[in-house]
Design a protein that fits this description.
single chain; TIM Barrel; eight-stranded parallel barrel; 13 helices; 10 strands; 16% strand
């Protein structure tokens, strides 16, 4: 009898141990990092045909940021995509609205078609990692001509719908400003951003050089966000304005009225200016702001801006991640997706 009890006791203990043992082949999964906690790679002026034959190929590239240059054409009332022609389109966006039309249609289309390409590509790749679409408004908005922030939002919403991660998503009905949400690290995980695009807006080179224009894209869109929030309509906004230009400390303080400073959580500046000058970039990761460092190849020691080795790209990504960048950009369009799709821990 004693032997039977002992066998039963050992069996019970074995069963309990089995319940506490992880089943082979099902290891515990590491939690996905938040969007604010990683560093990834982007492609400068990805709309250029010299980089990709079709914009869909830019999306295929694995890059986490793709840049578009946009002009407001006040005569034809269209959003032109071009590097230097404000009255025409010169780009790799094609007249393709459906997945089966990609990689085959006529190019040199307007912004609406670029967005159509994104929507069609998204259908083919619904679980793609988050992609930031950086829009440089070359001459700024033209609100009184019907090409202002409202119309930009409407176009993006009509073309991409729920595939855009918007300012209202970061606020989540909880925070009074983007700044408050960022400081609380309310950013979603990268996994929860699968299939999403985020739009960043920066003032353009022509706009900045215009002596008669003192109301640039960044300020205008931040005003737009503040006003939408006050009106209870922040869900209409589709983009995040960025503070452009590397500067030590908080660049919002010297540039903007206090009423719109809390609507900037994207910052965008030259990588070498940040790093080579020893600026304290920990400010950005400490507050969970998104820091985009451009011309990553120019940081000392400089590497090729077009065709570095894979090892050089990996080393530059690691270096700028330690300097708290969220995204680094260059003209590395020739690199494979295994390189351009690299993501590492920030800071």
């Amino acid at each position: 009898m004693l032997k039977i009890r002992l066998v039963r006791r050992l069996a019970a203990l074995a069963g309990a141990a089995a319940l506490m043992t992880v089943v082979p082949g099902t290891p515990a999964q590491a939690a996905s990092p938040k969007f604010s906690e990683t560093t990834a790679i982007g492609t400068h002026n990805a709309y250029e045909k010299s980089k990709y034959t079709y914009f869909a190929q830019a999306l295929d590239s694995g890059a986490s940021l793709l840049e578009l240059d946009v002009y407001v054409d006040t005569i034809s009332h269209r959003w032109r995509v071009s590097h230097s022609n404000p009255w025409g389109d010169n780009n790799n966006c094609e007249a393709a609205k459906n997945p089966d039309e990609l990689y085959s249609k006529s190019r040199n289309q307007d912004l609406g078609s670029c967005l159509d390409n994104m929507a069609a590509w998204n259908q083919l790749h619904p679980d793609h990692p988050p992609i930031v679409i950086k829009v440089e408004m070359k001459v700024g908005f033209y609100d009184k001509g019907g090409l202002g922030p409202d119309e930009f939002d409407t176009l993006v919403s009509q073309k991409l719908g729920s595939s855009v991660y918007k300012p209202a998503d970061l606020l989540d009905g909880t925070y009074p400003s983007l700044d408050a949400a960022a400081k609380a690290n309310a950013w979603p995980t990268r996994d929860s951003l699968k299939g999403k695009f985020l739009f960043e807006l920066i003032p353009g080179t022509v706009e900045q050089a215009n002596p008669f224009d003192h109301y640039w894209t960044d300020e205008e869109y931040a005003d737009h966000l503040r006003n939408l929030y006050a009106a209870g309509d922040i869900s209409a906004a589709e983009a995040f304005p960025a503070v452009l230009g590397a500067q030590n400390g908080d660049p919002r303080v010297s540039r903007y009225d206090s009423s719109i400073r809390p609507w900037f959580v994207f910052f965008d500046g030259d990588a070498a200016t940040y790093v080579n000058n020893g600026y304290d970039t920990s400010f950005y990761s400490a507050h969970h702001y998104i820091l985009i460092t451009t011309d990553a190849a120019g940081v000392s020691p400089a590497i090729s801006s077009t065709d570095p080795t894979d090892a050089e790209v990996a080393a530059r990504l690691s270096l700028l991640a330690k300097d708290h960048a969220s995204l680094i950009t260059s003209d590395w369009a020739t690199k494979p997706a295994s390189v351009l799709g690299s993501v590492t821990t920030r800071g």
